[in-house]
Each structure stands twice: as structure tokens, then as C-alpha cells.
Amino acid sequence: MIRCDTSALILAGGQGSRMGGIDKGLVRLVGKPLIEWVIEALRQQVGDVLISANRSVDQYATLGYPVLQDAMPGFPGPLAGVMAGLGGMTTDELLVVPCDVPLLPRDLVFRMRPLLTPQTDLVVAADPERIHPAIFLCRAQVKAALAAYLAQGGRSVRGWQATLNTVTCPFEDASAFSNLNNMADLERTEQQLRTR
């Protein structure tokens, strides 16, 4: 596959409240931090990788990619990280994914990109079970709309996407989008990987 002229932003800036407050991107799955699983899934698909993080910044920096911190104080949510990514991207498109989805499809960008037409602002991944608003591809031009939404106090990813011309991109394998919210999810995924 040929890499797309797309920047990838990995959201690792949350508080990890459902993981007991630990930095989720650095939690190990089969001996490797979750964020490294995500990077491996994406780096052959995109032109560059950015990391959104508000803690453990030095540790994330050792991975060799730019680490962006929220300009807004107080952990205002993932959209603050997206705003930082839109400011730090070097391409015309930004793929956004969370750091806790280690089994992302290796053709994620290639499937989503054709749906980002001149009439479309944003493409969201979906599987047969549900839509995944935290996994999306957007144009650089949505930055103004996001800034306005945040200035009005908006914090919901779904709410912001509803203000744009958004379409979904269907994927068949729901397990590829399993996010590891807690230690039980982590243990279940580790067992699946060890039996592959």
C-alpha cells in the first residue's frame, strides 16, 4: 500500500479514569504500550503521526513523534486534542484515533479517504454494531468550526460532528475497533492475541 498524504493524531491526553487514573496509552498489552500498537497500525497508512498528550509528555516523546498538549486548561476533553492536532498537522487531512484501540484495520485510511469528497467535511468509522465517533478523518478546514464550537462551550465529539457534513465509513470487523477502557478489556484482548 502507498501512504496517504494524511496526518494521524493519536489521542492520549485523557485522565484514564476508567483505568484507575493511569496513563492509558502507556498501559502494556502483550508487553508493548497501547500507543505503540496504534502507531504500528497507522504508520504505513499516513504521512506523519502526532500524539496528543497532557501527561507523561517526555515518555511519549521518546517514541519519536511530535507530542502536542492541549492549549485549553483542565482536561477539557478529546476535542481540545483535536484542536491541537489541526494546528500541528502538516497535510490537508487529519485522521483522529484514540490510543486505546490497538487492533485498528491496516486499511483504515484507504477505506475512509475516498468518502472525504469536496461535499464532505468528516468521515466517521462504523462497524455493524455501532458508530465510532472518536475515529474519524477530516479536512484541515474544519478547524474554524471546531474553534467556534469549543468557544461556545461545546465538548461532545458527536455534537461537533453533527454540525458538519459527516458521513460514515462501514467496516465489517467490529473487533478491530474494540477499545480498552478498563483492565478487564485489556486482559480479554491479551488472551485473544496470545491465542492467534
UniProtKB/TrEMBL annotation:
Co-factor(s): Mg(2+)
InterPro entries per record: MobA-like_NTP_Trfase, Molybde_CF_guanTrfase, Nucleotide-diphossugar_trans
TM regions (residue ranges): none
Signal peptide (UniProt feature, chain positions): none
This protein's UniProt keywords: Cytoplasm, GTP-binding, Magnesium, Metal-binding, Molybdenum cofactor biosynthesis, Nucleotide-binding, Nucleotidyltransferase, Transferase
Subcellular locations according to the entry: Cytoplasm
Tree of life domain: Bacteria
Reactions the enzyme catalyzes: Mo-molybdopterin + GTP + H(+) = Mo-molybdopterin guanine dinucleotide + diphosphate
NCBIfam families (alphabetical): molyb_mobA
Domain topic, free-text comment: The N-terminal domain determines nucleotide recognition and specific binding, while the C-terminal domain determines the specific binding to the target protein.
Function: Transfers a GMP moiety from GTP to Mo-molybdopterin (Mo-MPT) cofactor (Moco or molybdenum cofactor) to form Mo-molybdopterin guanine dinucleotide (Mo-MGD) cofactor.
Record-given protein name: Molybdenum cofactor guanylyltransferase
